[in-house]
Design brief:
With 177 residues, this protein is mostly beta strands. The protein has one helix and eight strands.
């Protein structure tokens, strides 16, 4: 019985020492994030924003992630709703804080289309961290500072063609070794 326990403990220690880091070269990642916000103004105006963004990526180098995401954005203002669909690349650098926490900084771009005539370009700086529950699964918290531009000649509004947004997102990541 002691030999069996010793064998199992030795196997566990040996296999975890050979385990690949979840942010090392050659690892694939499948992830998704979701965000929701709403606001009420004193004048009776109500608005809400729902964002869903699945993505997939690959680590070409240790700690450097490159990915491609799909974006779905639904914006509602005073019961009028519009949807945007988009696609875009991203790149991140992961810091080796410890085994379970991997902070990162990144850049992303999204090309989004609303209806058939309105096109948005979104550029974002991403800062966040992955909290690893296992060597393959992590929960991600992220803050994005985003600049969104559009062609003002296609929009019936007065003002700047660039919107600045700070958003907080929660997501999950699955890493394939």
């Amino acid at each position: 019985m002691k030999k069996s326990i010793l064998f199992v403990l030795s196997f566990i220690l040996f296999s975890t020492s050979l385990a690949q880091s979840p942010v090392s070269k050659g690892v694939y990642s499948v992830s998704g994030s979701i965000s929701y916000s709403s606001s009420d103004e004193e004048k009776g105006n109500e608005s809400s924003l729902f964002l869903f963004s699945p993505s997939a990526g690959y680590f070409f180098f240790d700690n450097i992630y490159t990915g491609l995401s799909l974006d779905y954005v639904n914006y509602t203002h005073n019961k009028n709703s519009t949807a945007r669909f988009g696609i875009g690349p991203s790149i991140r650098y992961y810091f080796d804080a410890n085994e379970t926490l991997k902070p990162f900084i990144g850049l992303s771009y999204s090309y989004l289309k609303q209806d058939s005539y309105l096109i948005f370009n979104e550029y974002a700086l991403n800062v966040g961290a992955n909290l690893f529950m296992t060597n393959y699964f992590a929960v991600e918290g992220r803050i994005d500072y985003k600049l969104t531009s559009y062609n003002p000649s296609t929009v019936y509004s007065i003002g700047d063609s660039v919107t600045k947004t700070l958003r907080i997102l929660l997501g999950v990541n699955y890493f394939i070794h």
